[in-house]
Design goal:
Elements lengths: L3 E5 L3 H12 L6 E3 L2 H8 L4 E7 L7 H11 L4 E6 L4 H9 L5 E4 L4 H37 L8 H15 L4 H12 L10 H5 L6 H8 L1 H11 L4 H9 L20 H15 L11 H11 L6 H10 L35
Parallel strand pairs: 1-2, 1-3, 3-4, 4-5
């Protein structure tokens, strides 16, 4: 899916003029008349650059661009208005909420230049990310080597999570970060001894306490690698439970970030349908019933409902093949600054 340009303005004549201007330069932009309509477009489109008016009914342009920090952080954000004061504009630029501020009436060449530069910036970031993506997936596979029974687990969790995120209308950029967090959700297990990971019996109380530390070790890795907050939340909180009985922070309900709640369901289901050193895999039918029974206690019932509706019983594609992710294999690999915790002996 190609990245797109979005104009947001409550004046239809402005949208028409800006659209005609970009189309004359070979770019066919999207348009929205307010922030609410624009946010809906982020659920269906990968948007590289957004140019928003400030004075609009409902959410202002600045408020809308601030919200995009969570919805689509990589989108290049441009504010265009006749009613924005200089201190406000500078504060927005300095806080990375806005890339550029333009004044109405605009100059055509300036609008085109800013959009083209924003598109180049977005593509550069994602070219780098695609190289990193190969490194991230390779790291996840390396971690799985410590516990042969989990081979392919991280990739399957990513696919399950992406199917759910797509069905829930989560923005494309956030879906990408969910994929990264799913791949690396167990990266902290690099610090857990293979004796604990591969033991033939269920963990003792002391062993379980050690195992629980992998979420904290994992988020340290994520911070050092400068992964997004979405990915960090997945790594840190995927063992929280909806009723507050999970770890590491005993978060409850919607206190748990939605991305972690999604991956938690995917993680539980894949664990149930996989052979482990201490038990055989459950059938898909049985695992689905067990997941259904966990709704409202261990798992978010809304996420479980979507999961059971969209996840098939049959074979899954790899997360690289998942059609909504626009994944690409990288020819070269850019090393990440990953500092892993020492293994516990």
């Amino acid at each position: 899916m190609a990245a797109e340009i979005l104009f947001v303005d409550d004046n239809k004549l402005v949208l028409q003029a800006l659209g005609d201007l970009l189309r004359s330069h070979g770019i066919d932009p999207l348009a929205a008349s307010d922030a609410e309509e624009a946010l809906e477009l982020f659920k269906k489109h990968e948007i590289a650059v957004v140019v928003s008016d400030n004075q609009m009914p409902g959410m202002s342009g600045l408020e809308f661009l601030r919200e995009l920090r969570n919805v689509s952080p990589d989108t290049v954000k441009v504010l265009i208005s006749s009613h924005v004061d200089l201190p406000t504009a500078l504060a927005a630029i300095n806080s990375s909420e806005v890339y550029r501020c333009l004044m109405k009436p605009w100059k055509d060449e300036e609008i085109v230049e800013v959009v083209q530069e924003g598109l180049r910036r977005y593509r550069t970031v994602h070219d780098i990310r695609r190289e990193d993506e190969a490194v991230l997936r390779s790291l996840a596979q390396t971690i799985e080597l410590k516990d042969p029974s989990t081979k392919g687990h991280c990739d399957r969790v990513a696919v399950y999570a992406l199917l759910v995120a797509e069905a829930m209308g989560i923005a494309k950029e956030m879906q990408r970060q969910i994929k990264y967090g799913s791949w690396l959700h167990d990266c902290g297990k690099i610090g857990v001894s293979e004796f604990i990971l591969n033991g033939p019996d269920k963990l003792s109380e002391d062993e379980f306490e050690t195992m629980k530390m992998h979420t904290g070790w994992g988020v340290e890795v994520a911070e050092k690698a400068d992964l997004s907050q979405v990915a960090r939340n997945i790594i840190h909180y995927h063992h929280e439970k909806y009723d507050g009985s999970g770890y590491p922070s005993q978060l409850m309900g919607e206190e748990i970030p939605i991305e972690a709640r999604i991956v938690s369901v995917a993680d539980v289901y894949d664990a149930l349908t996989s052979d482990r050193s201490y038990r055989k895999a459950y059938s898909f039918e049985k695992a689905r019933e067990m997941v259904r029974e966990m709704a409202g206690t261990a798992l978010d019932p809304a996420v479980v409902k979507v999961f059971l509706a969209v996840v098939p019983d049959g074979p899954l594609p790899s997360s690289e093949e998942f059609p909504e992710c626009d994944s690409h294999r990288a020819g070269g690999k850019k090393p990440l600054n990953l500092v892993l915790p020492a293994a516990t002996c």
